[in-house]
Design brief:
7 strands; alpha/beta; 5 helices; two-stranded parallel sheet; three-stranded antiparallel sheet
Length: 161
Amino acid sequence: MPFTIQWVDNCLGAEEVVGLQTPVGQLVLTIRQDVIIKTDWEASDCLGTPGKHELNQYWQNTDNCINIKLLKQGSLYRNQVWTALCQIPFGETMTYSVLANKLGSSARAVGNACRDNPYALIIPCHRVVSVSGMGGYCGQTEGGLMDIKYKLLEFEASHKK
């Protein structure tokens, strides 16, 4: 996995919004101090000039391990799902039901935790698919976010070692 996550229980200070242009679309990072508190895919390029951030390294060299700090959020169960998502190898996918079986849970509960993931790209919920297709991404099953899911999986498959 290209990210080493340090979970931070709380952080103070002003929020900074940074746009990061990626090969699959604009990723918007909300940061307090040096802690990422949220990521979102931008539907349009309305943020202007993208900011520079260590996540740029993700696209340059997929072997590099990127150290980042994330604000710990969500329930114990969601954190278990998000931790399991980070164990899915770069360039591979897993079905909701297989992941659910590993956690002793249900596919629907795993899907809900994926939908509530506050860290798109970093917590790789895009690597989870349905037994009958792509499933969803960031709460959507069609449209621009699904295009991003396809592009992320294509990027990872083409850069898999």
